[in-house]
Amino acid sequence: MVNADMPVRLELEPMSGDEFVVRRAELVEDYAQDLASSRGFDGEHARKSSQELIDGLLPQGAATPGMLLFTGTAGGERVGWVWLALPRAPERPDTAWVFNVYIDAGHRGRGYGRAMMLAAESELVRRGVPRLGLNVFGDNTPAIRLYESLGFTVTSQQMAKPLPTG
User: Fold this and answer.
1) Is the four-CA dihedral 16, 152, 88, 39 of positive or negative sign?
2) pTM for this structure?
3) I want to staple 50 with a disulfide (CB 3.0 to 4.6 A). Which of 29, 31, 76, 102 is the partner?
4) Structural fold of domain 2-149
5) What is the CA radius of gyration of the chain?
């Protein structure tokens, strides 16, 4: 169990297999929506792509080696969860990645996103990981602001421009 001391007190606990089943379904839908809005995928294609990616990255669910899935609780109540990937060679042997951070709808806007990220950082520091990376969709302004306020900087960027058809 990790404790992050901050204005909002949040604890991370390893995610159970039962909770993973529920959270996986939410993740598939959320990521499918992101794919549809950012890449123009139709609904079914986005959902299928989302499922394939998540199943490929988490073949053993919450017990997948090299992946850390934690439930965030505050005052004994679940407020969200975070998915971290431990460093893997040869891509970036010094960098862990935030694959997803999710705050449940009823708990948003109260500092839990920041608390979740700080608790995740504390867990990685405890494990000796020197660097943390993440990807964020360009239209997710609240997340970008949060990450910048936590000290993240842009290290690469993709851009797109719609072209006229016909």
Assistant:
1) positive
2) 0.86
3) 31
4) Aminopeptidase (3.40.630)
5) 16
From the number of C-beta atoms within 10 Å of its C-beta (0-12, 13-18, 19+), residue 140 rates as middle
User: Domain coordinates of the chain in residue numbers?
Assistant: 2-149
Structure tokens at 13: 């606990």
| DSSP secondary structure, the chain, as one string | -EEE-SSS-EEEEEPPHHHHHHHHHHHHHHHHHHHHHHH---HHHHHHHHHHHHHHH-TTGGG-TTEEEEEEEETTEEEEEEEEE--BTTTBTTEEEEEEEEE-GGGTTSSHHHHHHHHHHHHHHHTT--EEEE---TT-HHHHHHHHHTT---------------
42-51, 56-65, 118-127, 130-139: least confidently modelled range: 42-51
Residue 3 has pLDDT above 90, yes or no: no
Strand partners, 88: 92
Q: What is the dihedral sign for C-alpha 109, 106, 68, 51?
A: negative
For residues 65-71, average pLDDT: 97
Instruction: Return the closest-CA partner of residue 80 out of 68, 71, 90.
Output: 71
Respond yes or no on whether the N-terminal peptide bond of residue 90 is cis (omega within 30° of 0). Answer: yes
